[in-house]
Amino acid sequence: MTDDQAAGFDLGSAEFVRDPYPVFAALRSQGRALWHEELGLWLAARHADADAVLRHRRLGRIFTPREPPDLWDTFNWLHAESILDSEPPKHTRLRALVAKAFARGHIERLRPRVRALAGGLLDAVEPSGTLDAIADYAEPLPVMVIAELLGVPEEDRHLLRPWSQAIVKMYEYERTPEQQVAARQAGQEFADYVVAMAVQRRAQPGDDLVSHLASVEDGGERLSERELVATCVLLLNAGHEASVNGFGNGLVTLLRNPEELTRLQRDPWGLAPTAVEEFLRFDAPLQLFERTAKEDVDVAGIRVVAGQKIAALLGAANRDPAVFADADRFDATRDPNPHIGFGAGIHFCLGAPLARLELQTSVPMLVERFPGLRLAAEPTLRPTFVLRGYESVPLTW
């Protein structure tokens, strides 16, 4: 292994996946991006470098269709037609249209509904005295919220989470054949469902986001059917993963730092905004975001040649001591907190306001409802790296 290579970054190591932060510190100490031979890409670990990777206009989010195309057709266009996997000028057009639909007050009108939904979930578990913070609270809440946002009928909402779980497994670097089959099937079923919903909303529009996406116009431009479907699928996949994993990762950290838990319990609603940002910084729900060089480019201390990939390591950047004082300490009052958990540049997460709303509601409601909240057993971490989160967080009070 040469000095250019990223030692210790081993996705096959259970220890690394469990706690990648010591390796991140070693990568940052090199002062530039490092090459990872197995993944075939550069890794940018410092905050300044990761931020530059996310913002550089000669680096693109270039989607590579999966092969064979007849098997992956729907899965491929769901990504090729989305904002996340598009670059200007297409990205500019899509983001303007979607942002215009979002601007009709969708997020703010959900505020009381998010609180009601979270309260209902807590009411259901309170008599038992135990709670799985993921299965009983963090997972169902964002799916309920996004279903409300899109206008998905209540009787169909149970379909959304399994579809999303199957699709996002393809974002990891190690996948089984069974997971690939499930992802293709989920993509097809989800696309068919949204197409049918969009047809119905064009004929009978409501006050939901699908109706507004179907009708939104900007400078004579409108979303195609595939672009509308891809936008809805992206909203569920990205929206719920950020909320579920951001909540679970942050909650486990909070419960392992009793002084910070006490601070939050004393003023749950007043401290929620800074605590939530620290949740997203300290143990990032999305650890890696790839970009591809459209031409030779100097960035993060190295030259990335045209066609090569470079990844921003968001979790590593968010623990950079050059930016964050006492970076390895969880501080629920940290301010300012310039983390890049939601990305940066043109691909900054469009759903960030919704994720923040959900977390700034669900976190204080939980700690306020159960003053004696504590871990009932050791949480179970998911065996994945890119999307970092817990499968189960058992609680009692």
Give a short synopsis of this structure:
The chain has 397 residues and is of the alpha+beta class.
Structure in words:
By secondary structure, the chain is an alpha+beta fold. The chain has a single domain, classed as Orthogonal Bundle (Cytochrome p450), CATH 1.10.630. Helix content is 51%, strand content 10%. The protein has helices at 14-18, 21-29, 47-55, 69-80, 90-102, 106-109, 111-125, 133-138, 140-150, 160-168, 177-203, 209-215, 225-255, 258-266, 268-282, 314-317, 352-369, and strands spanning 34-36, 41-44, 59-60, 130-132, 288-293, 297-299, 302-304, 309-313, 374-375, 380-381, 390-392, 394-396. The protein has a five-stranded mixed β-sheet, sandwiched between helices. Strands 4-12-9 form a three-stranded antiparallel β-sheet. α11 (177-203) packs across α12, α13 crosses α15 and α15 packs across α17 (352-369). The longest helix has 31 residues, at 225-255. The chain is globular and about 55 Å long. The N and C termini lie far apart (50 Å). The mean pLDDT is 95.
